[in-house]
Give the backbone structure.
Amino acid sequence: MRIPVFAANWKMHKTGLEAVAWIREFAVATKNLSAADAEVIIAPPFTAIAAAVEATRGATLAVAGQNLHFERQGAFTGEVSAALLKAAGADLVIIGHSERRRIFGETDESVQRKVTAAHTAGLVPIVCVGETLDERERGETLAVLDRQLKAGLDGCSGDQIAALILAYEPVWAIGTGKNATATEAGEAHAHLRRRLREWFGGTHADRCRILYGGSVKPENIKELIGLEDVDGALVGGASLESSTFAAIVSVSATL
Ligand code: PEP
């Protein structure tokens, strides 16, 4: 039995004050939801992490970074390490988001180094994988997922796989308003679970939560979360309004 996870990726939005207001509104909107129904994560920009951590004290919300640098410390102007995120109060970190891969040149190798750095610092990685539209149209979706998964998780132990969160995010669905169909998402999630089982063993693979990400909204979450290997959602645009994200999270109470 895997508890569903809903993660809000705020990207480059929200000040500390805006984060605190969102957290308060979200707490009111989800007051009838129990921790057994769902785990909820927010990923604010680095500059709002401390305020978010303070505002979530005593609540069941966890805070994640949106990225990290794999070195522990050093002359890396503008970068933030896993240890710095952990010290700021984050418990998780998003790694390998397609915007990082596409705009900032992240590779499968840097994803792997970041996953290792997160584990070393005691952060839970939320590892993103997903194909572009070209790759899907060429019939390469599953091969791309295999490559990203194998390289990104290289060196992880079974226990680390069980604890980490994987996010299947088809690049063509992110921020476009066009989500994957249940068939497309179901096929990709089942494939990822199958590979985790082959590479890390069934016990560990069956505990790993695999989220769907890509234009999730209150109108489509029910169908997606109903799929066997979809254990929650990573949500960008629809997480910026607390009431919209609360509506998405609230479907977990109906499962
Ligand atoms: C994301 O940024 O991870 C994402 C899924 O964005 P959106 O929900 O806006 O498609």
Notes: Strands lie at 5-9, 39-43, 61-65, 92-95, 124-129, 165-168, 209-213, 232-235.
